[in-house]
Write a structure and sequence with these properties.
Length: 370
């Protein structure tokens, strides 16, 4: 049976960003590759441990060494040796780095973004140095590299002398969809939110542009141009976020909700006047695609990756305070866009593209020879 190893360090009970991408793609791969088996590697037990089917196994490092070293260093130094005995056919590095030694199989590396080169001041210290130390060597060792967007692929190929093998974009889960009014009102009542409101989605960290969104929102309130609106922020606290947290807590018209489930998020998208996503840089921009699936107006930064996610209906801006102000006002004057055709953006479609890369048609050849 064809065996796929997976770096599972980012998986956990509240998947977001890269961890959500990896988890949703894993679930879709289980259906697309019914004859494969999967082994997921992690530095510590995942709780609650997600189980997809009987063909999935979880291998955790129970050594004292594994428990003491940082996450990225564990991947570089320990993961390969943990996988060495499992007779893998291919290993997927879904977090942007690969084990330095120990692996004896094909390797596929996913490049989600190039934050460490394009926006290094916005990265956490550990993430920045992990990528600076290990990303280039991982690129050299990878047999195939995939990216999550054409924008990321183009930037990567401009920096590195290696081609992207395929683009595997994020999809939409069935849960992310336009909700009925009763569902929206139930969520708003639970959080004490009154309409109308603007919505921001993402971890509280510098790259997401909240340190500019909040002053832009404040200024529109003072000028009476948003007389009744509030600002809802869905997302956990992250890193380098003390300034953002102070700004958010200084205004009673701002509602920070922390992490929310997909059901809650869908209701928030549906009820919002607009999603405002003024990130300085993204590898793709999943909240923008999700907002489109709920028929929500979108204000977001004018970069190629976010244009891929936002399509033709979004209002594209400079991620400055003035740019955000103008974008919000323009969006509120426009008609609500049509709900996105989900069939063009499914995890199953992405998984089929990715499965061909992982198997390199090996499984088809095995089936024909059986």
């Amino acid at each position: 049976m064809f065996c796929i190893g997976i770096d599972g360090r980012v998986l956990g009970p509240q998947p977001k960003g890269i961890s959500r991408y990896v988890w949703e793609l894993c679930k879709a791969l289980d259906k697309v590759l019914p004859e494969a088996r999967f082994i997921v590697y992690s530095r510590r037990p995942i709780s609650p441990m997600p189980v997809i089917s009987a063909r999935w196994r979880w291998r955790c490092d129970i050594s004292r060494t594994g428990a003491k070293i940082p996450n990225s260093l564990w991947c570089i130094l320990r993961l390969g040796y943990l996988a060495k005995r499992d007779n893998l056919d291919v290993f997927w590095g879904g977090t942007g780095i690969l084990p330095l030694a120990g692996l004896r199989c094909r390797t596929v590396l996913t490049v989600h973004d190039l934050v460490y080169r394009l926006a290094p001041k916005t990265a956490s210290f550990r993430a920045l140095w992990a990528m600076r130390l290990f990303f280039a060597s991982s690129v050299r060792r990878a047999d195939v590299i995939v990216s999550n967007s054409a924008g990321t692929a183009n930037r990567f190929e401009a920096f590195y002398e290696k081609k992207i093998g395929a683009i595997v974009p994020p999809g939409l889960t069935e849960t992310i969809r336009r909700r009925h009014s009763a569902e929206v009102q139930a969520v708003l009542l639970r959080y004490g939110i009154a309409q109308p409101y603007l919505l921001s989605v993402g971890t509280l960290e510098p790259r997401k542009g909240l340190h500019r969104l909040v002053p832009a929102f404040d200024s529109l309130l003072r000028e009476g141009r948003l007389p009744n609106h509030c600002l809802v922020i869905a997302g956990d606290r992250g890193w380098k976020d003390d300034q953002i947290a102070r700004l958010v807590s200084s205004n009673r018209r701002i509602h920070p909700l922390g992490f929310v489930t997909d059901d809650t998020l869908s209701a928030l998208y549906t009820g919002a006047e607009a999603l405002v996503f003024p990130s300085s840089y993204e590898g793709f921009g999943m909240p923008v695609l999700e907002a489109r699936a709920c028929g929500t107006r979108i204000v977001t930064t004018d970069i190629p990756e976010l244009r891929e996610a936002g399509g033709e209906d979004a209002v594209y801006i400079s991620p400055s305070i003035e740019g955000i102000r103008e974008g919000i006002l323009k969006a509120l004057e426009s008609e609500k866009p049509k709900v996105l055709n989900r069939q063009d953006h499914t995890w199953a479609k992405s998984a089929k593209t990715f499965a061909a890369i992982l198997t390199d048609n090996t499984m088809e050849r095995l089936a024909r020879s059986a």
